[in-house]
Amino acid sequence: MTFEEFKKQLDKATTEEVVKATYATYFKIKYNTSHHHDLYTPQVFFEFKADKNFHNLKALATILAQSLYYIRRLKYVEVEKAIPFFICLADKNEATLTETRKWTTYYTNDAYDWERPASKPDPMLVDHLVKEPETGKLHVYSVTKKQEQEAFKKNLDNALNPQMILDFGDKKVINEENFEAVFEHWKSVIGPYIVNGYKPSFYFLANIQRDKVIIDKDNSRVVFTFEDKNSKTQKVLMKDYDYFWSVYDYVENAETINGIHAKLDRLTDESQRRFEGEFYTPLRFGQKAVHYWNEVLGKNWFKSGKFRIWDMAAGTGNLEYHLPAEAYKYLYMSTLHGSEADHLKKVFPNATCFQYDYLNDDVENVFNKGGLTFAPTWKLPKKLRDELADPTITWIVYINPPFATAQVGGAKGDSKKGVSKTRVELVMDKEDAGHVKRELFAQFMFRIVHELPKNTYLGMFSKLKYLNAPDSIEFRDKFFNFKFEKGFLFKSTTFHGVKGKYPIGFLIWNLSKTSQAKTVEIDISNEEAQTIGVKHLQLIEKKDVLNNWFPRPQNSNDYILPPLSNGITVKNDNTDTRHRARPDFLASVCSYGNDFQHAKYVVMLSSPNASAGAFSVIKDNFEKALALHAVKKIPKQTWLNDRNQFLIPHTEPTKEFLNDCVVWSLFASSNETTALKNVSYLGNTYQIKNNFYPFRLEEIKQWEIKDPDFKLQIVNDQNRFVADWLSQNDLSHQAKHVIEKAKTVYKLFYSNLNQMATNKWKIDTWDAGWYQIRRCLTEHNLATDELKELSKANEQLANKILPQIEEFGFLDKDEVYETI
User: Taking a C-beta distance cutoff of 8 angstroms, is the pair 577, 565 a contact?
Assistant: First the structure.
């Protein structure tokens, strides 16, 4: 690529991806873009933008701050990559190059909030970089000017010199949090030379301490001295040994060595590997949770001796693995299975580990009406009982309880076979805790808030339904109305064996303080446990849900229409008939549930719906009913919004919005309205009209209709409700475009009636429903292009509606800064 081509490409660039590709091609950069980096080489870290003003000090400081988030990640988390000696910031007009070590005091400073997304850096860090004299001294090159570009290219070529990493790069840290991953990297580089003697983990522990190794470069040998004072000599290729230790610093801190030593067995304990099965907390999220504990309690909270930790569902201890080893002596770990308890005693020798069924053991003592008393028959260890009674101790409940739902008759979805009633559930039933009593994690919460002292923090991995599901509101208001401190969420499929895609949250609650907050802000994490956004979760009341937006019409006891299970199928065998309607009935909308999980069941029918949650559409609620349908169907379900609730809008929607929703709904796949002739039900015969037919009779009479019966019907019939409604309302140009495309499809349907087997779709009358028309045409490969054009027009209308759904308040608005 020539300079002129480089300049031309940048001039046309509108995204940072194009800028990145142009730089990479022109400067021949061999790079790595894994882990969400822009461009990475061992010598230079690149941060690209589309079009920023680098001469604006705050803009420059913000981009520099973003790059320091990645540099910090390289230093402490991503074990295999060296820290580049240079940082390059660039956009389509300008670039700057700076030595990484000039910013060491910033990216190693724990005072900044490093859990924020890199794209939204800590404002305090940005402010400090603005005030930092070195920021103002950065030379900004105008890369589209030939002389400036040549100077930049020369400096960049020098920076990309492969020798830079060995001679100048900042060293990476080995600590309690990353040592297992570093060990795996060490095994791949130095491990092959370890051929006999002690476990590889013992060699690693010796190697990370400068005074435990003697290096004989002339003879390519290293002497390793172990904790038991014995030593072994191994022949090691020096270029590999030097490479590894050019990237990492030896560990000088005695506390870090002690912490790693305490966890050393895990590195080669195969029984632990076998234990790590489905539904155990991924280690990286346990590590992230520890960071959040540090932010809530203070970085060295475990040193004070004032805290105690209890995990009542410890499993194999994945949650606690990244706790500082120094905290283990304050740790209680209980688990349902004896084999797991035995394993915990081995991995956490300084902790108190024991077998205990938290949902059944000692329940009668905890909920004793005479007050909490520690009877001699309790299964809890005496040490734990004594410390629970000590008012000077602050408790940390750190837990990943089971997510299962207790089985009830006919329940599906999250329900699990074999989850029986517990003693805690029986108590919750007596206390009127509501439907949430069937959730095992809620049962843990219920006992915790009754048993633990007030000065307790609860940090729990769980679903979010106890916060915003309508069935959980009674439980939340009556038993769990506490102050939210901090938390994050991530995709459920990160847990091995989980198939459903929904958010799992780790949320920290202060049980010593109640709260009236209506919203909590939870960080959003990607699968690598990196923060990528913020979720604003509204703590709803039952009256807030969208199904309460307008009153559902009262049906008549003696006005019956055949109940349908889809557009053309009558449901005759329901024990719960659900066939009541009313004389002014137009259609039914099934709107069972209020979250995305249930949105797939939302459908419109021309007769009562045989399923729960349906209501009658009449003239008075027509617009809002179809708006409700559109609001629930247009937003796409993701793992992040799966448990979001659809809400009554906080701002009254405009008439144009309502009209757009009506038109979109008329041609959506979930519109299963139909016209059915001579329907037999309970000994009677019914004629079901399609009140949602969109075109007026005087217009249809001008069309080519290849069916004499239909022609005769049209002469003697009346316009349907929707056709009149459309003619009486002003539509947006996007909605009008949909109607025009639909008209083309309908005309083709009538002109091809003699070529289609219409009986399959029960098409016997002129006012056939959209469900019948689209399926019949599709089956006969007719109007294929026209159907695609209509679908495209309706999608464009949906794109207009979608942002307004959040603007009016039908859904909470999340802030996501990177791809999820």
Answer: no
Q: What is the DSSP letter of 661?
A: H
- The Cα–Cα gap between 100 and 386 comes to 52
Asked if residue 391 and residue 320 are part of one domain, the reply reads yes
**pTM (2 decimals)?**
0.80
For 9, 74, 210, 450, 644, the CA distances from 14, given in Å and listed in that order, are 10, 29, 51, 58, 34
CATH code at position 471: 3.40.50.150
Contact 665, 683 (CB under 8 A): no
Whole-number pLDDT of residue 409: 37
Whether residue 427 sits in one domain with residue 385: yes
pLDDT digits (tens, 9 = 90+) for 448-458: 999 999 999 99
375 and 435 both lie in a single domain: yes
Residues 387 and 252 in one domain: no
Q: Is residue 246 part of a domain?
A: yes
The average confidence (pLDDT) of the chain is 90
Quick one: tokens of 388? 């629970």
Is residue 27 within 8 Å of 39, Cβ to Cβ? Answer: no
User: In the prediction, which pLDDT does 417 show?
Assistant: 46
Nearest alpha-carbon partner for 759 in 700, 707, 684, 720: 707
Rounded CA separation 783/668 (Å): 17
For residue 472, which amino acid is it? S
Q: How far apart are CA 445 and CA 358, in angstroms?
A: 11
Question: Of the candidates 245, 268, 291, which is a domain's last residue?
Answer: 268
What ranges in 85-173 are assigned the alpha helix state H?
104-107, 123-131, 133-137, 146-159, 164-167
Cα 60 to chain centroid distance, Å, stands at 31
- The residue written with tokens 């703590």 in the block is 539
| pLDDT, position 564 | 95
Distances (CA, A) of 128 to 55, 57, 109, 115, 135: 17, 11, 12, 18, 10
Which residues 6+ apart lie within 8 Å of 534 measured at CB?
521, 522, 523, 524, 814, 815
| Domains identified in the chain, total number | 4
Where are the extended beta strands (E) located within 539-667?
Answer: 587-590, 603-605, 614-617
Structure-block tokens of residue 414? 């999250």
**How would you list the strands of the sheet with 531-538, edge to edge?**
352-355, 331-335, 307-311, 394-399, 456-462, 503-514, 482-491, 519-525, 531-538, 815-816
CB 569 within 8 A of CB 606: no
d(CA 703, CA 270): 76
Residue 73 forms part of a structural domain: yes
Check whether residue 218 and residue 323 sit in a common domain. no
Q: What is the mean pLDDT of residues 643-657?
A: 95
Please give the Cα distance from 536 to 277 (Å, whole number).
32
Range of the domain at 109: 3-167
Q: Specify if 173 maps to a domain.
A: no
Q: How would residue 190 be classed by pLDDT, with cut points 50, 70 and 90?
A: very high
CB atoms within 10 A of CB 114: 20
- Which parts of 363-421 are beta strand (E)? 394-399
Closest CA to 641 of 533, 752, 773, 800: 533
Which one, of 234, 197, 200, 229, lies nearest residue 214 by Cα? 234
Task: Give residue 747's pLDDT band: very low, low, confident or very high (50, 70, 90).
Answer: very high
